[in-house]
Design a protein that fits this description.
By secondary structure, this protein is α+β, with helices and mostly antiparallel strands. The chain contains 12 helices and 9 strands. The structure holds 3,4-dihydroxyphenylalanine.
Length: 344
C-alpha cells in the first residue's frame, strides 16, 4: 500500500487500506514495530494524512461519503493502535509499583530576596514603634518628587539626583520622599509612617550604583516633635537593627526638604569602630539622611507648620544589604542569578 499521488482514492481503496492496516497492527510485537506502523500510517507524512488531504480531489458525488469513511477509518486505526496488546504489555512491564511509604519529591522552596529581607527587618522595627506603612507610585509627578519637597525647578539640589523624565511633568521617582507629601495630604497629624519602595536614577551603572534601588522613608509629625525625638527614634532603631550598643554620629548635611538636615553614621558593626575594609578604616558607616521637616514642605502638603513639627529620614536599603551581607557588587541584586539568590 502506498500514498503516491497516483493512488486512486476510491471507496474500495479505503476498504483495502483498512484490511492492510489491521493486518499490520496484528503483527506488531515490539516498540520498534509500533513506531514503524505509527510513522507509516499515522505520522505527519503518513498514509492517513495523505488520504485526508486528498478528500477535496474526490469527485463531488462521492466526496461526502468518502470523507466520512476516511475520518472513521482514521479514528478506528488510531484507536486500535492505542489499544494494541503489545502496548499494555509494555506498559505493565515498566510500571513502577506504588509504594505509599516513599517520601515525596522535594518541592523547590523559594526565599525572600536579600533586599526584601532587609526591608522587612527595618519595617518591622518601625512597626513595633507604632509606625504604619504607606506606599506611593513609582511613576510620579514633578510636583510630588521635587516641587512639593521644596525643590523648585531652578534649585541646584535637583542636580543631586539624575532623573528619568517620562514627559515634562512626569518622571520615575528619584526618592521615596514624595510619599511623605501624599501621606500628609490624606491624613491629619499625628503621623508616624514608613514608606518603602523602589526609586530610579539615571546614573552610570557600576558596582556601587544602579539605575534603580530601594529606600525606606520615615515621617513623624505631631505637636512638639523635636530633634531629640529624631535622635532617640533613630538610635533605638539602630540599636535593634545593628547592635544593641551601637553608637550614632550625626553630621550636618543638606536636603531641601529638611531644616536642619543631617546624615547619620552608625558605628561599624563589623569592627565595632576600630576600622576595617567595610568601613574604609573609619570605624563608621553612613546609613541614612534625616532632618526636621521644612515648613515649606508642610505648606505644600496643607499641614499647619505653626502647630506641627516633624522629622523625616530616608534609608537606602541596598547600602545596608551590601554592608550586612558583605556583598561587593550592587548589580548582583538585580541579575536574578539563582546561585546568588539561594544564599539568602
Ligand atoms: N530623599 C533623600 C535621598 O534620596 C534621603 C532623605 C534625606 C530622606 C533626608 C529624608 C530626609 O526624608 O529627611 O537622598
Amino acid at each position: 500500500m502506498t500514498s503516491d499521488s497516483d493512488t486512486a482514492y476510491t471507496i474500495q481503496y479505503l476498504d483495502q487500506l483498512r484490511t492492510d492496516a489491521e493486518k499490520e497492527l496484528k503483527s506488531i510485537h515490539d516498540e520498534a514495530g509500533a513506531e514503524q506502523f505509527r510513522i507509516k500510517y499515522l505520522g505527519k507524512k503518513g498514509i492517513i494524512r495523505s488520504l485526508l488531504k486528498s478528500i477535496p480531489n474526490v469527485p463531488e458525488d462521492q466526496r461526502k461519503e468518502f470523507g466520512a469513511l476516511s475520518n472513521k477509518l482514521r479514528s478506528d486505526i488510531e484507536e486500535q493502535f492505542n489499544a494494541a496488546p503489545w502496548r499494555s504489555a509494555e506498559k505493565a512491564d515498566h510500571r513502577i509499583p506504588l509504594d505509599p511509604g516513599l517520601p515525596g519529591y522535594p518541592f523547590p522552596r523559594g526565599s525572600l530576596h536579600a533586599l526584601m529581607q532587609i526591608r522587612n527587618e527595618i519595617r518591622d522595627i518601625f512597626l513595633s514603634m507604632g509606625f504604619t506603612t504607606a506606599y506611593g507610585p513609582e511613576v510620579e509627578s514633578d510636583f510630588y518628587n521635587f516641587e512639593a519637597l521644596n525643590t523648585p525647578e531652578y534649585h541646584p539640589a535637583r542636580d543631586m539626583q539624575d532623573t528619568f523624565y517620562i514627559s515634562d511633568k512626569m518622571l520615575l521617582r528619584t526618592q521615596t520622599s514624595p510619599v511623605q507629601i501624599r501621606v500628609m495630604e490624606k491624613q491629619k497629624p499625628p503621623i508616624r509612617s514608613i514608606m518603602p519602595g523602589r526609586v530610579y536614577r539615571n546614573e552610570e551603572i557600576s558596582s556601587r550604583s544602579y539605575c534603580l534601588f530601594h529606600q525606606i522613608e520615615g515621617l513623624y509629625v505631631d505637636e512638639n516633635v523635636s530633634f531629640a525625638d529624631l535622635k532617640g527614634t533613630l538610635l533605638a532603631f539602630s540599636r535593634r537593627f545593628f547592635d544593641e550598643k551601637t553608637k550614632l554620629k550625626i553630621r550636618p548635611s543638606f536636603f531641601p526638604f529638611t531644616e536642619p538636615s543631617v546624615e547619620i553614621d552608625v558605628e561599624c558593626f563589623l569592627c565595632k569602630g576600630s576600622g576595617c575594609s567595610i568601613c574604609k578604616k573609619t570605624g563608621w558607616l553612613e546609613v541614612l539622611g534625616a532632618g526636621m521637616v521644612h515648613p515649606n514642605v508642610f505648606k505644600s502638603a496643607g499641614v499647619d507648620s505653626e502647630k506641627y513639627t516633624g522629622f523625616a529620614f530616608g534609608i537606602g536599603i541596598e547600602r545596608i544589604a551590601l554592608l550586612k551581607f558583605g556583598i561587593e557588587d550592587i548589580r548582583l541584586f538585580y541579575e536574578n542569578d539563582l546561585r546568588f539568590l539561594k544564599q539568602f
